[in-house]
């Protein structure tokens, strides 16, 4: 097959059911107008496909009335997944760019995301207005603001505001035809090579990212989505995938381990995306009778935990999709694992969607390996490359290494538009990531000699894993070093007691002559850092260990923290190491259950009313 024939075949595969998810949503609204598209569990609201089309058309039309044009950027800053879902599709129908903002961000991280995306409009909610107002003086240019749950008191603010009522009047969409090369999203990375970057992603990226998951989903499926819609898994692997295939969505604002199975069973959910942390929470629950009597048959686990097989057997999961995914690359590597043994999976009366033979046919056509879950006994199996991307393991000179040798995971797309286009305002980082015509993922991996599959090995760059997401140590350090009494701060992760998570450790060296009080530093972190970035352990040292060129030797600090002997001598010489707390600093975010959060889910927006129950 020639390169031209390969490209033509791949392009046809992507175009088979359209490369625009909004066109797919409109098609299903015509085919199945009364079928429930979204069941918003937080408020018992059902939204049919025809209602979803009407609502998102109205948002798009009113955006056009407000002066929004193709390529303009709209930020969605909401905890309400229902509001974020409608606005995501409405923004795309207007030809604009969806820019999700993590609603937990405060201070400088929030400023950075707003400055990087440069939105014309920010869609937010009452409980988040105060955080936006706090950063307003630090923004170079003020976006307009609209508050989707505008009924009721809210903090005053100085932003130019568009009344939410302006988006409720019936309006026809502007009739924008989306090209696969058009920019669809600006999504912030975890910051694997430094600060989080604003990744510019075309619509074709979304089509490729969801392709395998779409091929495994039918209109008979219900996709359970309880991950936030500023994440890839929630917005794209969950919601967009369902809209493309005519499936239903059971939508929640956040994951709740205690209530998870009740929610799944009540909605008849057949598919879900589970992070490693979520699998750990559910596996840690006391066993009970009838755990396999649930409709969940297909689960994407990313990254794949070591306990994937025992989890699948316990809860009767038929199919586990493993894969490698990140903002820049989408999902270029995957495998399908057969979880439960015959007769131990989803009960026949509850099973919907594709059966085992149909799943195998889909995988064979796309070149996705199908293997028994029992064969994958270690954490981090990624699978095999999908046909859209060439994948290689490279050495430090970007030369491929032999199978069985660990190297840098890198890839090249066979079609344009499958990878990140740019990092907003950061041309040097994108040039470094794409050097020598390879996109360098920042992760170390290996082609296993026995099973022939790719396996994740370690992090090439300094990352900390919190709640199943990668957080940049560099980013936390940059924020901490703004403290006026800190000369230099060093941050790294150490294994937490729970699951495969990390805890944040901060070593701080004070400015000369300016004593640093641990309790005051802890209080400053609470005020200045998002909860999930706050260090669990703080140590104050007189001087950091450094290399001859002045770089902090964090590996020595890690060994010091763990109480390990350091061959070159003590990591911290002749000083007292002060521990801010004998136990991990409490943080709001590691607790995943919504009951542990003081913030109540925002009410649905007035548009559309749906069918409350």
Automatic annotation (TrEMBL):
The record's keywords, sorted A to Z, are: Ligase
Q: Does the keyword Acyltransferase apply?
A: no
Bias class Low complexity marks the residues at: 591-604
Outline the segment boundaries, as ranges, of region: Disordered. Answer: 591-613
Looking up SUPFAM superfamilies in the UniProt record yields:
Acetyl-CoA synthetase-like
Residue limits of the AMP-dependent synthetase/ligase domain? 26-412
InterPro entries (UniProt xref): AMP-bd_C, AMP-bd_C_sf, AMP-dep_synth/lig_dom, ANL_N_sf
Q: Which GO terms describe its biological process?
A: fatty acid metabolic process
A GO molecular-function descriptor = medium-chain fatty acid-CoA ligase activity
- Specify the AMP-binding enzyme C-terminal domain's residue ranges: 476-550
Task: Supply the Pfam families for this chain.
Answer: AMP-binding, AMP-binding_C
Stated family = Belongs to the ATP-dependent AMP-binding enzyme family.
Q: What is this protein called?
A: Acyl-CoA synthetase
- Record the organism: Embleya hyalina
Instruction: Cite the source lineage.
Output: Bacteria, Bacillati, Actinomycetota, Actinomycetes, Kitasatosporales
